[in-house]
């Protein structure tokens, strides 16, 4: 039977939604104008907001840093396609918060560094610092155009393609000017983003249940196999198993929450470490709430389309368009709900892009420009250079968004490169903060081998995806309830292709390594740095721990160093300062020896 696509009605903003979008855009422009005239023209004020920010504002900004457009659009689709195993990401976030609060945060809060990569020079060497900074800048520049591209796909369903591209461009321009306002402007837009994202996720989830009720939704999800609470599948290609979501995802989030420049800027913006820990704990609870709401929205999606998948029937071109398509149907009963969600996506994208631009500009200035500047350069000049860098990075992002027709392939590659760099940098910082015997040789060898291994895995996985040898598994999708045509055979054919590809992979041992889920890449990278860096440090010689600032180590390592026994048989001048009596006795002996020489 020939596949006849089911037509879908176009989506357009109504007057109320345009007004709400105008109000949101007006608030964003107001924030830009305010911080253009009221701003602290100093490096500390631009990067850290003067380090006297309130706990509430920083907490909301940390929550907003997790609420990207990818999260709002991607998590519900993930639940729709593969079930609720993603709920275990809440456990990952709790583990990450604890490790950040007691391992990494004390180190950086004591050192108060303008760039997190300055730590690598203090702990290891200048070369290590340069490698870390280059990896960070490259990964962020690749990821930056992807952030506005995701809402661009959603806006194409509510306006024509040119208008959606213009809207994405407006998003990037607003983000660029917010980034020039410094951390205070970014935190201000983060507060707006948090409340809009909460409304844009909670309202659709609640309104979707009114026609059917919670019990009916739960039954449909259970019958469709979407209620997955513990999937212990050991298959490495299964990227939604319990171990992937908890172990591998924790690695990526640990880099983002504990060590990324944009996150450290917010955590160091509060005056004390206790307040920073409060921000971490409360933001953890807020992000978990938003993740659960996104999972709930995914179950509501499946309850509506359990027997009539919009992609198989031709109503949408990609599953990323599923949420706007669903909200279009919901808007027939509850007008305005689609506009609220898309406005939340616009706000989340603006805040995320502004944070990335600001952090990239700060790292580029501190790592590649400030070392070549005269020491007597004024703070005002430094601040102006960082603002100029923000404008240049924003212009790059706007140019890519406007010129590129499709960024799907770049999106996948950028995500892989981000995972590779995140794992290597996490392993590098962990090696320095936790292992006191680690030295420069171990750090360089571990990071380089980690990049080679993860890059090899990434290239192999991309080749497997291109040839069809690697596919992402999912739950069954049906069209039997559409009433237009029976597309069950389509899914059977797709299942046959997946099974044949899997059987071919099992006969090729080398390619089986490339079947590792992309979410394992950060974990593999961090583990490689540690497994190579620690033994190499012992082989090449111990680091001079006694001559280092103890603040470069985490509290656990510091306590271990304080309890080490003294191996020397007698006290020496290098280990302790002599008292005044010992000095007088030494002088007296020297004078007696000098008198004997003169007498002779």
Written overview of the protein:
There is one protein chain. With 600 residues, the protein is mainly α. 70% of the residues lie in helices and 0% in strands. The protein has 24 helices and no strands. The protein has helices at residues 15-37, 43-48, 55-66, 69-82, 89-111, 118-123, 126-143, 146-155, 161-180, 183-208, 214-223, 242-259, 261-267, 273-305, 322-331, 337-369, 379-403, 408-434, 440-467, 488-506, 509-512, 521-540, 555-562, 580-599. The longest helix is centred in the middle third of the chain and has 33 residues, at 273-305.
User: Helical content, roughly?
Assistant: over 70%
Tell me the span between the first and last alpha carbons: 120 Å
Provide the CATH topology. Answer: Sodium/glucose cotransporter
Q: Identify the CATH homologous superfamily.
A: Sodium/glucose cotransporter
CATH class category name: Mainly Alpha
Tell me the number of strands: 0
Strand content: under 5%
Query: From the helix content, strand content and strand pairing, which structural class follows?
Result: mainly alpha
Question: How many strands, what sense, and barrel or not for the largest sheet?
Answer: none
The overall number of domains is 1
Q: Spans of 5+ residues with little confidence (pLDDT < 50)?
A: 1-8, 484-514, 566-578
Could you say what the CATH architecture is?
Answer: Up-down Bundle
Element string (H = helix, E = strand)? HHHHHHHHHHHHHHHHHHHHHHHH
Average pLDDT figure: 77
């Amino acid at each position: 039977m020939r596949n006849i696509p089911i037509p879908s009605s176009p989506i357009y903003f109504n007057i109320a939604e345009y007004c709400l979008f105008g109000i949101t855009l007006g608030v964003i422009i107001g924030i830009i104008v305010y911080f253009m005239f009221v701003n602290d023209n100093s490096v500390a004020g631009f990067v850290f907001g003067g380090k006297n920010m309130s706990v509430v504002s920083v907490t909301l900004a940390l929550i907003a840093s997790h609420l990207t457009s990818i999260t709002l659009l991607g998590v519900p689709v993930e639940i729709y396609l593969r079930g609720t195993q993603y709920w275990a990401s809440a456990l990952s976030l709790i583990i990450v918060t604890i490790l950040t609060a007691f391992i990494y945060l004390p180190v950086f809060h004591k050192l108060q560094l303008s760039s997190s990569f300055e730590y690598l020079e203090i702990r290891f060497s200048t070369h290590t610092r340069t490698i870390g900074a280059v990896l960070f800048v490259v990964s962020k520049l690749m990821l930056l155009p992807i952030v506005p591209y995701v809402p661009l796909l959603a806006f194409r369903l509510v306006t024509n393609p040119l208008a959606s591209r213009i809207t994405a461009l407006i998003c990037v321009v607003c983000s660029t000017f917010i980034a020039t306002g410094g951390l205070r402007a970014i935190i201000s837009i983060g507060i707006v983003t948090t409340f809009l994202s909460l409304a844009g996720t909670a309202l659709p989830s609640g309104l979707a249940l009114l026609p059917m009720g919670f019990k009916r939704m739960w039954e449909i999800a259970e019958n469709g196999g979407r209620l997955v609470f513990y999937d212990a599948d050991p298959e490495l290609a299964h990227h939604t198993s319990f171990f992937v979501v908890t172990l591998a995802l924790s690695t990526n989030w640990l880099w983002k929450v504990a060590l990324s420049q944009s996150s450290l800027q917010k955590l160091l913006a509060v005056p004390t470490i206790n307040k920073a820990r409060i921000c971490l704990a409360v933001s953890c609870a807020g992000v978990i709430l938003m993740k659960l709401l996104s999972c709930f929205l995914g179950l509501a999606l499946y309850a509506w389309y359990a027997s009539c998948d919009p992609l198989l029937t031709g109503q949408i071109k990609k599953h990323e368009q599923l949420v706007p398509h669903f909200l279009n149907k919901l808007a027939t009963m509850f007008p305005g709900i689609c506009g609220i969600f898309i406005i939340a996506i616009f706000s989340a994208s603006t805040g995320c892009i502004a944070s990335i631009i600001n952090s990239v500009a700060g790292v580029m200035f501190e790592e590649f420009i400030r070392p070549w500047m005269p020491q007597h350069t004024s703070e005002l000049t430094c601040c102006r250079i960082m603002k100029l860098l923000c404008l240049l990075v924003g212009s790059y992002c706007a140019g890519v968004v406007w010129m590129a027709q499709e960024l799907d392939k770049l999106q996948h590659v950028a995500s892989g490169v981000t995972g590779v760099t995140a794992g290597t940098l996490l392993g590098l910082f962990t090696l320095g903060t936790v292992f006191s015997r680690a030295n420069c040789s171990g750090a360089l060898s571990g990071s380089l081998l980690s990049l080679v291994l993860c890059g090899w895995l990434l290239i192999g996985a991309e080749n497997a995806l291109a040839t069809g040898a690697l596919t992402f598994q999912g739950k069954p999708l049906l069209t039997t309830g559409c009433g237009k045509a029976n597309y069950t055979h389509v899914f059977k054919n797709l299942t046959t292709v997946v099974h044949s590809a899997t059987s071919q992979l099992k006969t090729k041992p080398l390619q089986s390594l490339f079947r590792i889920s992309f979410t394992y890449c950060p974990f593999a990278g961090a583990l490689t740095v540690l497994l190579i860096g620690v033994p190499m440090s012992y082989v090449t010689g111990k680091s001079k721990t006694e001559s280092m600032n103890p603040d470069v180590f985490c509290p656990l390592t510091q306590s271990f160093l304080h309890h080490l026994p003294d191996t020397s048989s007698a006290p020496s001048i290098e280990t302790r300062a002599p008292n005044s009596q010992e000095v007088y006795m030494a002088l007296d002996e020297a004078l007696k020896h000098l008198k004997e020489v003169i007498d002779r």
